[in-house]
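SUBJECT: protein chain
CONTENTS: sequence, structure tokens:
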Amino acid sequence: MVEEVLLRIVLAVIIGTLAAIVYSLRVLVLMERRVARIETHLDKMVHRTLLEEARIEKSLKRRR
């Protein structure tokens, strides 16, 4: 009887640990998606900045 209670407690701890691992992996996946989205926005901003910089340099060369 005591062994059965101890076994249930150990199984509950194992299941709780596995649930915590699954939840933390879910959080990591969501954060990775968010970071990827931020990187995409940064790439777009850098591209726009480079295009604008090229236009400005081109217009400055024309003035000279």
User: Anything to note?
Assistant: The two ends are 94 Å apart (CA to CA). Helices lie at 2-63.
